[in-house]
Design goal:
Layout (H helix, E strand, L loop, with lengths): L2 E5 L7 H12 L3 E4 L24 H7 L6 E7 L7 H7 L3 H5 L7 E8 L9 H12 L3 E9 L11 H18 L1
Parallel strand pairs: 1-2, 1-3, 3-4, 4-5
The structure holds flavin mononucleotide.
The site of flavin mononucleotide (FMN) has 18 residues, from helix 1.
């Protein structure tokens, strides 16, 4: 049961990182940081219609290996009520599966969202976008962590979100057992 976390936050000690680190304390995971990976966004050149992406970078390596994972956790702060642009740029490279019509095996997934909460009070738009991005990897979303008032309650003090995270950790451990 291999687990991959795709992280859309640039902040190494931020709110999203808090949840990611909690998971990593309990479960062995690979982590891809969209902000620190070296990759180009999909340019819709359509080479992948014939099976091959023109790029050879960290995103190529990530998606070449995607079938080795059983569980994918996507984590991001809200930026303008959406997951971060860097996360979306990274996920744009999943066009290779869409255009290449490659059938991926089904995986389970989870979504972690953090938001400052000063302007946006719900994460529905971002969740929908993240579900669509995960759908491109044939991931069925089983659970959520939402910490949406981090300007007032940082993730590490958000007990409700920590409870949601603990349920997910248990869920993954049970799947691994
Ligand atoms: C460019 C930018 C846009 C943001 N837009 C939103 C937003 O639309 N809604 C919201 O609740 N928080 C917004 N925030 C606040 C972050 O989502 C919040 O601080 C989050 O907890 C940061 O997570 P991190 O510490 O893991 O990076 C924004 C922050 C930045 C830098």
């Amino acid at each position: 049961m291999a687990v991959l976390i795709i992280n859309g936050s640039p902040r190494k000690d931020g709110n999203t990182a808090f949840f990611i680190n909690r998971i990593r304390e309990e479960i062995p995971c690979d982590v891809t940081d969209a902000y620190y990976a070296d990759f180009r966004a999909c340019g819709d050149c359509r080479s992948c219609v014939n099976g091959a992406c023109v790029h050879n970078d960290d995103a190529s390596r990530l998606f070449e290996n995607i079938e080795s994972y059983d569980t994918i956790i996507m984590a991001s702060p809200l930026y303008f009520n959406q997951p971060t642009g860097m996360l979306m740029a990274l996920m744009s490279r999943t066009q290779i599966f869409f255009n290449g019509k490659k059938k991926l095996r089904e995986k389970t997934g989870y979504i972690i969202l953090t938001g400052g909460g000063d302007t946006v009070i719900n994460s529905a738009d971002a969740e929908k976008t993240m579900r669509i991005m995960l759908m491109g990897l044939n991931v069925k979303v089983k659970g959520y962590v939402r910490s949406l008032r981090t300007s007032h309650i940082p993730a590490e003090k958000d007990n409700e979100a920590i409870k949601q995270l603990e349920r997910i950790i248990e869920d993954i451990k049970n799947d691994r057992a």
